[in-house]
Design goal:
The structure is a homotrimer. Helix content of chain A is 22%, strand content 31%. Chain A is of the alpha+beta class.
Amino acid sequence: MQPKSSFPLNVWYVAAWSHEVGKREPLGRTVCNRRMVLWRKSDNSIAALEDLCWHRLLPLSMGWLEGDEVVCRYHGLAFDGKGKCTRIPSMDKENSAARVRTFPVLEKHRFIFVWPGDPALADPALLPDLHWNDDPDWAGDGKTMFAKCDYRLFIDNLMDLTHESFVHATSIGNKHVAETPMTTTHSGRTVTSTRWMLDVDAPPFWRTQLGKPGNVDRWQIIRFEAPCTIVLDVGVAPTGTGAPQGDRSKGVNGHVLNTITPETDGTCMYFWSLMRNYKLRDQSLTTFLREANAGIFVEDQVVVEAQQRAMDQNPHIPLRNLNIDAGAMRARRAIDEMIAAETRIAAE
Amino acid sequence: MQPKSSFPLNVWYVAAWSHEVGKREPLGRTVCNRRMVLWRKSDNSIAALEDLCWHRLLPLSMGWLEGDEVVCRYHGLAFDGKGKCTRIPSMDKENSAARVRTFPVLEKHRFIFVWPGDPALADPALLPDLHWNDDPDWAGDGKTMFAKCDYRLFIDNLMDLTHESFVHATSIGNKHVAETPMTTTHSGRTVTSTRWMLDVDAPPFWRTQLGKPGNVDRWQIIRFEAPCTIVLDVGVAPTGTGAPQGDRSKGVNGHVLNTITPETDGTCMYFWSLMRNYKLRDQSLTTFLREANAGIFVEDQVVVEAQQRAMDQNPHIPLRNLNIDAGAMRARRAIDEMIAAETRIAAE
Amino acid sequence: MQPKSSFPLNVWYVAAWSHEVGKREPLGRTVCNRRMVLWRKSDNSIAALEDLCWHRLLPLSMGWLEGDEVVCRYHGLAFDGKGKCTRIPSMDKENSAARVRTFPVLEKHRFIFVWPGDPALADPALLPDLHWNDDPDWAGDGKTMFAKCDYRLFIDNLMDLTHESFVHATSIGNKHVAETPMTTTHSGRTVTSTRWMLDVDAPPFWRTQLGKPGNVDRWQIIRFEAPCTIVLDVGVAPTGTGAPQGDRSKGVNGHVLNTITPETDGTCMYFWSLMRNYKLRDQSLTTFLREANAGIFVEDQVVVEAQQRAMDQNPHIPLRNLNIDAGAMRARRAIDEMIAAETRIAAE
């Protein structure tokens, strides 16, 4: 039986890119059905409150910032970063009941993470590993897609890259992907699927990146960290230069960072970034890769949103699993276990 | 506990401006979930029928007028102003069962009022006082806003003008409004809130209207008449000329007429008019004030529609009340009493 | 009491025009709540499958054709015209469980018909008679309207052409239609309503088609074949040339083919064609008539969609029937009987 909830709550989810949260205007975002208002204080730390004025429920994200506080656009109530109401019009004394809920928040690796669940459990050690995003040995950039689907459809999509051959037939896909099986291992909250395509023709994208003729050894190592982060370690190296044995120095390597935050049960925010370990100072290449990848990811969005609509229209027809879905099945199981563990705790 | 219905039915509600109901085309409007078709007969009286053809339910407002009757666009059934079907195609004799419900209707002060409740109770003495709208001592004009919210959110909004300081910070608001308390009195179906700001700087709007330098005494007298009419008596006079004591002759005075008709539980029509007692023949000023006010009221619409969405998304979170909401609370109580009285009668 | 379902399933419904189903791209259509993907195979026969990939529910109509098979855009599963999965990526052996439902399908008279019900009952003898559509003695063309209403509202509309006087007052309607009664006969699944208007002025449309002055005998013979096909045999001939007695040779005659396929309970596809027995090689006339008729039918669509909305808003108000609705009532009864018969069989 499916768990009722589609996401666990005691998780660090990306709510925004760092550059989206500033000192000039509050930002409204929804994470796990919780509406939040985010802003940056003068000491550069981030505030994350429930996006509802205590008084008349107007979203605080419609208001403005005054110093380190957010001011409601309706009647001017002001709230500090701890959710305390510091000003009520026509009232001199404070009303200690006038509070807005806060959410644990962290900034790391160019992202703003929030914790929608129990604040007492919010441990920074549980942040997913996205270090490539601001590691000086890597260069690149990314974007955000807002999609009308359960975030797990993107997890399924990423855990099985055979879809590249069909969804992305004109760009990164070719027949070798669909024809080569994957090896999947798992441990706790992580699932790793590995595919090595040895001595194959490179698809157009990788051919260009490598800049050399001849057959290649191509790898796709998919590392999932429950519930919603997937890092794709992908690349090619000239056949015979030792990549399968661990020497990637003659090849080119990218890490595609994907973290898909559930907004609601039927919508999500997909944050992604494309980081590479070559031509680090080539901003034109960064821009080209980001925009090219954005185009490819829209192909996925079209497909999974259509899948979501078909699932909604056919609630009694199950999804079927094939060999290619072994990684996705493992990932789903890890998500389900996190949700079930929270449900057990809540029931105690 | 909240009453189930959000509006009383035995009330004269504004359905349209007088000039909107003519002899050329029928007009469709919705008042308290009742769809109505309105038109003007040759003697200038108004007809108000349920907007559904008796035969196949097509809205009669999609049809046309022939003399004093409305003709259904589908099969040509004709109905007179009393709801009687006077013509059925291919039938010679009358069908006395073929009738459409009528609603009591009155025209007064440039508005068309309808009574969606029990016709036997429709007493013209119960019309709200909007006489400024066609009083020769006053000049001005107004418009209609169609808004996606419970009409009572506009009542709350108008009963507490401290919101001017925040919602309308760039036009009519300034800090004196939020800082000066109101006095509220009530009696039967009316609630009156009064705020006098003595010896204050005038905000830009009033400075221009007065046309004189120096500090002013400014007043805001809000008169609510349940369930949905609010007249704002607002103005400024030079400090020391006796306005607080009753002599407004050196100042300028406006009456902002507001009457907000519930269309459905979640939508409303907001009819407003801005009437002044100075420069009566200045049509340019009338047009300027009407358009300027329209812009200000859209600022309110944006806020209360956002409040409505937040309330819908958070049905279990109550609205909280502050000192500034004393008038709104009284107004809500008067509305609730009208609804409760109708519910008791219906239960007997 | 109304039957719960609004349509019978054991019926040949038009799903598309012949020219819409080709060998280059699959076509997605919905018939009786069944989503279908249609394509043309190399032998020109038609395939009709459920429009859901067995694996992850993506609509197959989003995919592409390879030879006689449709390929899923997501992971490349291929299905033949019998619904058998012929290719699964990364799997060598076949999975006989991987099947997609097929629908009986026929091509006839320029239309593609599908049978959404029990395939064992799909008898080509049950096809509705639309032979004028490719009969060499007749010329003409048609189009498709996608409408937001129960298909039966169009049946009501067509069974009583008095609406022409009101809905189409400026084109084909005139007062004679509303003033002349119809004769209705019925037999099994067919209902026939006949109206002869003798020695009358011709409306503008027919005046032009006839190309002669003087009064005419005008006929409208409406033949309904349950559940959703109506052929209008319409025309005029100069009065006194014997048309009422059977000699139409001096007149002009059209057959308006109408077949309205339920997509869902609240939407339909209205396929129509306007066929004539004069000026057979005049393509300009064919185009003119098709476009003129399209404009007239949009007038009907506006009316019946508004009727549908009014019915949805007033679920407890019944439709009333007049003399003019005798044909529609008979047609509705024939539809209800088909639905009831299927319900009885299903209950046995």
